[in-house]
Structure formats: structure tokens, C-alpha cells
Amino acid sequence: MSGDILRGVPPHAGSTAYINARIIDPTADSEYTGAILISDGKIADFGPNLFASGAPYGIQSVDCRGLYLAPGIVDTRVHTGEPGEEHKETLDSAGVAAAVGGITSLVLLPDTEPPFDDASLIEFVARRARQIKLANMYAYGALTVGLEGKELAEIGLLAEAGAVGFTDADHAVGNAQVMRRALYYAKAFDALIVHLPQEPTLSSGHMSSGLMATRLGLSGNPPLAEVMMVERDIRLAEMTGGRLHLTKISTAESVKVIAAAKARGLKITCDTAAPYFALNDLAVGDYRTFGKLVPPLRGEADREAIVEGLKSGVIDAIVSDHRPQDQDSKRVPFAQAEPGGIGLETLLPVSLELTHNGHLTLPQLFQRLSSAPARLFNLPGGKLAKGAPADLVIFDSSLAWKIDRTDLWSKTKNSPFDERPVQGKVMATIVGGRTIYRDDRFVPAVAA
Amino acid sequence: MTNKRAGVPRLPHLLGIEGLSPETISGLLDLSESYIDQNRSVDKRRDLLTGRTVINLFFENSTRTRTSFEVAAKRLGADVINMDVATSSVRKGETLLDTAMTLNAMRPDAIVVRHAESGAVNLLSQKVNCTVINAGDGQHEHPTQALLDALTIRRRRGSLQGLEVAICGDIMHSRVARSNIHLLQIMGARVRVVGPPTLMPTDIDKMGVEVHYNMKNGLKDVDIVMMLRLQTERMQGMFVPSISEYFRFFGLDSEKLKVAKPDALIMHPGPMNRGVEIDSEVADDLDRSVIHEQVEMGVAVRMACLEALIGGRRNSVGAAA
């Protein structure tokens, strides 16, 4: 299982055609065999009939041999350790993992040390991304100073510096007055507020409450800690008219409440992370700290409801919620372990289970992974359109392999999906027309 | 004696009661029984574990459990080292595995571990290649306590099968309650848990127990009353309003005990908070309270566990190296 990270390779000077590909167009909700033409890092043309009789001379053409080609994944929830905890993950190592995972744009969470509550840090991320030359990297601004949930951060200045959304990462804003003002104030900048709905006073436990927690003797967080915050936030969004996006929805009740709010016409959106539709609380059995996440993994009925929410479209997007933790943070008793799991490289294969199991079509899956998150965060990628950046992923949807954490490129190896058999593998990742990752098995026939 | 041991399958560790078979539990109790007379005689020592090293590694303060393990190991001829990490300045958790690896390198035959966090003993057992005995981990399990409770009951009642047992008090934070629920159910007893709703863990009923919030209902016609220690630091209005209110509604006194069977036994894992969860009158009732007998059985049970786990074994760990 290996491939190459290609950094700083300039795109072909002229145009490149990717032919004979199964093209997934999430915006058009369609899938067909066809070709795509890239010029100057942008999509110049695409369609089922393009180059049906072969690419013209003077264009480099790449035969995809029937592999899938889709807009690259836009992952809006990525923790790294830069700055502050570079021993866990740097922007560089996260960029490599993203490239291997078919992720062409990532939005970095602000819970670094120091946190992104100052405009200079948003500029720092942009500068580092230019140096790293892999995926597009964007940053959230902190919603409150120091992510403490007390005073509003400089939302306007952060937005001006390039922050694409505002959040306190895995900290919930418990104070309703602060949240109300944040939603009001952010309207002046049309800024998106992303909130992890967890009532803090009910969320001090270490896993989801229930029989499993009782048996293991671990204190639990009740699933209702999520839905009561969802309900509060919906009321505040309705009152203020602010743009609210709820993140990492993990319970059946939350899906129900959000569906009802959307039915009422409220412009509320939400996402879930791969673990919440792929795992349940059995994954923390025998005190497996890799399964300790925020919010905690729930019971099977909640997991099924998340799958249903993705099917019905109540849940708009899927994120990796990549959160690296080193051994010192995980190889300790469960209650003392830091929460979080890595997910950049496993996001696509784990999400493909939704299509293998017949819950979503491939265009629907890429709506959740690429086009919806790009639209919500106003990012240029995530779609097939003439003039859009050529951010693409080429993958084999049926290749079977087993996730082995020691083979992952991330700096830390805390994958909750370790040893999971999956189907589907990224063969190449293209950002702005440049191939940044290519699997060894994908050796395209290049004809000039 | 050796034929009794034959009934106990070799276990690598004793981390909890959950998952043990009724045969294993009976075998351990039979083996424990054989040590009671020895412990009551003048010459208490046998040489079954001569040359074996047992380390008591306690990350949490404990007097009676640690002493009980120490006495048990010494009466079988083992060398015992006590490490009270709780009193030293090392920070919890951070050094758990380092400590385990260091001790493991000294080639002990068994490490007896107590730790304040659930699952810490399981974690440690994955990193050492000697036998690990759980002497209490967080709110998870305390298997030797459940075994000594079972031995005490069995000697008084002949069998656990069909008995009605009420476990009363702070179920939520109690590893003793969890180990006893497992053991009593495995051995065919019926278990009720009694206490204020705030001290009941979520979905405890799904463990097959009957839940009561009222002592008189919960104690009705029971054969055994097991009281649990209430951690007074949990009494700051977070779980129950006050000690006096707790004692009034959930403390065991002769009045509440009237609804139990006339010969119902009173048990407590110790140390007792008199006037909090138990009235002195019933705690000291010689006809019904078996609290001191539990302590005595504790030594016999721990001798049996040590023998079953590390007795009669060739030094396979050393030989493999």
C-alpha cells in the first residue's frame, strides 16, 4: 500500500485531458463515463461526449481506465498541532495525509496553541499552505477569545484576514447570551458560525451513557446533552437570523429536531463525522482509547439515525474530524485519555461504505463530502464547473484493503478505524491541476 | 488440596468477575474454603508459593485490601513487596505504564493493582507478562471483594442459588456493586439495587437487576443486605442533599431491616460510615452482621486466587526469555 507525494511539480504547461473516467458530478447529481479537460489549473471542459473520439494533438491525455473521478473532498473539520503541538501533527504532515485521502481543501480548527483568535494566525496558515504546496488550506477563526466562551473574538478582522468560519472547535459555548451575541454580530460580516452542540454541564463524562458505560464503570454523557443544545441554538438562530452550522451531529433526536427546523424554513445546516455513521459505543469496549471522541460514540440506534439523516439530506455534510493524539495522550487509563481520532486518510474509504451498503449514490456521497461543504464555507472547489479550480480525486471504489494504523501517513496513529476492512482507495489527488498524490497502482498511460 | 485446585482453570489474570464461569467461581470458593482452617490454626504458613514474588501496586490508598493481599501471599510463602504510589509524588496515569514496565522487568510472578481509574488494571495487564490481579479499578470491578462476599454467604447459607440479595447505597460509584452483580447473577442469585436515583448508573436495569428507590420496598423479604460505603466527598449536595437526609431514607437501621427476612445477613465491604449508610445497632448485631467474617474470608479468598493464578507453575516467563 504505497504511493508518492508529488510536491512542487508544476502542472503541464498546456492542457491535460483525463479521459475514460467514471465522472461523478455531485451538483448535477449525475454519473457517467466521459472526460475532463484541465487548462491553467482550472476545469476547462467536461462531459460524456468530450473527446469521445480521442483527445486532439497537443494535449496531454491521461487514461483513467474506468476509475472514478470526482471533485476533491472538502474537509471542514481538521485539527492539527501547528502551532503549539507539532509533535502531534504539523500542517505539512496533515497536508500529506489529506493528499493521500483525496482531500483537496481542508479547513483547520482554531484550537491550537495559541488559538486562532488573532488575524496574524489566519495569515500564518495561508503562508504555510503556500510553502507546503499540497491541499488548499483554510482556517477557522475563534468564535470567542481563547475559545473560552466568554468574550467575542475579532470576527470582522479575522474574516478580513481570510477566516472562512467561526467556531470554538470542540468547546461548546454554554452561555446562551454569548452565543446570541455571536450570531447577531456575525451577521454584519455574513460569517458562518459553526457550533458543536453539547450542553457543557452534562458533558463531563468519558463516553456515551448507557449500559456499556455502566458496565465499564465510566461516567457517561447522555445523548440529550446534544439535542438540548441543538434546540437552544436553533431558537437563537431563528431569533437572530445568524448563519448557524451545527457540527458532529451524533444522535437520533438531534436529526429529528434539525429536520423539523429545516422544514420550518430555517437556514440551518449541519454535518456529522465519519465515526458517527460507521461506529457505535462497542468500539470503546475493553477501554479502547482510540474510540474516545467528542461527542462520544453513541449506541447503534443513534448510528442508524445518522445514516438515515445522511440519506434524507437533513445532514448536509461529512467531515473527518481529524484529531491527532500521541501515545502519551492515548496510552493511559480511559478517563485520562485525550479524545479524538485521526481521519483524513480513512474518510473516503469509510464513507464509501454508505454507497456499498446502498444508502447513498456516489453523486449523493460527493454532495456530502465535496459540494455542500464548499458551498457552505464559500470555498472555490468541491464542484465540476467550467472555470472552477481543477481540484479532483481519482479513486477505485471496489479495491478491498484493511486499514492498518501503522501504514497511515499521519504523524500520530490514533485511528478509531484501525484494522477495519474497507473497500475503495484513492488513486490520485489533483489540486489546481497539479497531481499531488499518486498511488503506485495508478500508472496512467500518458500520451502527448 | 491439589485436587481442589484442579477444578479451577488456569487464568492469565484476574481482572474482573464478568465473564467468569460458575465452575471457575465455585472452584475458587472451594479452594478458599480449604484455607479457612489453616488461617485459624497456630501454624498459618504453607510453602506453595515459595520463591514467587508478589508486588502490591496501589495507586490509591487502601489499608485493608492491601494488608489482606499481603497476609495472603505471606501465608503461602511468597515474597511480598508493597508499593504505595498514591503517597509518592508521581502523577496518576502518566506513569502507569512506565511503572508497570519497570516492575515487570524485575520479573514478579504477580502484580496486585489498585487504581482510581476504571480500566487502568486492564491496560496494565496488556503491558506486562506476569499475572495481574485487580484489587479495585475506579468504578469498574473489585473481583476479590465479590468472591469473599460470596464465600461468606455460601458458608452461612450453603449456596447462592435462588437467594434474594439487595445491594444498597451508592451503586453508581461502586466497583464492589458491579463485581457483586456479576457474581451473584452468575451463581443464580437474584439481585436488587436500592438507593437514590442520583446514585444509580444509567441503564443499570439492563444488567438484569431490579431497581428500587425506597429501602422498605427494596429490602422486602431479602436474604442478604449488602450496604455500600458512601463517599462523603460526594455528599456536597451534588448527589444527595445531606448526610442526615441520606441516613434517614437510605441508611440501614433496625426499622428498615424489619421487612427483610428475619435471618437476613448484613454485609458491608468496609470501612463503614456509621450514621451515614449504617446504624451501629445493626452493624454490631452479632446475630446478623457478618462484617468481620467478610474480612476473615478476604484472606482465604486471596490465598486461593494467588494459588490458582501463580501456584504450581514452572517459571515459564523466565524460561521463555
Structural class of chain B: alpha/beta
Name the CATH homologous superfamily of the largest domain in chain B: Aspartate/ornithine carbamoyltransferase
- Strands of the widest sheet of chain B, in order across it, are 7-6-5-8-9
Whole-number radius of gyration of chain B?
19 Å
Broad shape of chain A? globular
SSE sequence of chain B, one letter per element: HHEHEHEHEHEHEEHEHHEHHH
- Quaternary structure of the protein: heterodimer
> What count of helical segments of chain A does DSSP give?
12
Keywords (chain A): Pyrimidine biosynthesis
Domain Dihydroorotase catalytic (chain A): 69-254
Organism (chain A): Enhydrobacter aerosaccus
Protein name (chain A): Dihydroorotase
Describe the structure.
The complex is a heterodimer of chains A (448) and B (321). Chain A is an alpha/beta fold. Chain A folds into two domains: 4-70 and 391-447, Urease, subunit C, domain 1, CATH 2.30.40; 72-376, Metal-dependent hydrolases (TIM Barrel, Alpha-Beta Barrel). In chain A, 28% of the residues lie in helices and 24% in strands. Chain A has helices spanning 91-100, 119-132, 155-161, 176-186, 211-216, 224-240, 252-263, 274-278, 300-312, 327-330, 347-356, 362-376, and strands at residues 3-5, 15-25, 30-39, 42-47, 60-63, 68-71, 73-78, 103-108, 136-139, 141-142, 166-167, 192-195, 207-208, 220-221, 243-246, 268-273, 317-319, 392-402, 421-431, 434-439, 446-447. In chain A, strands 1, 2, 3, 4, 5, 6, 18, 19, 20 and 21 form a ten-stranded mixed β-sheet that branches. A four-stranded parallel β-sheet of chain A has the order 12-15-16-17. In chain A, helix 2 links the parallel strand 8 and strand 9. The radius of gyration of chain A is 21 Å and the shape is globular. The model of chain A has no long low-confidence stretch (mean pLDDT 95). Chain B is 38% helix and 14% strand. Chain B folds into two domains: 13-142 and 296-311, Rossmann fold (3-Layer(aba) Sandwich), CATH 3.40.50; 143-295, 3-Layer(aba) Sandwich (Rossmann fold). Chain B is α/β, with parallel strands linked by helices and 321 residues long. Chain B has 13 helices and nine strands. In chain B, the strands form two sheets. Chain B has a five-stranded parallel β-sheet. A four-stranded parallel β-sheet of chain B has the order 2-1-3-4. Chain B is globular, with a radius of gyration of 19 Å. In chain B, helix 2 packs across helix 12 and helix 6 crosses helix 7 (175-186). The A-B interface holds A 209-211, 213-220, 222, 286-287, 328, 331-336 and B 18, 92-94, 96-97, 115, 117-120, 122-123, 137-141, 175, 178, 201-204, 206-207.
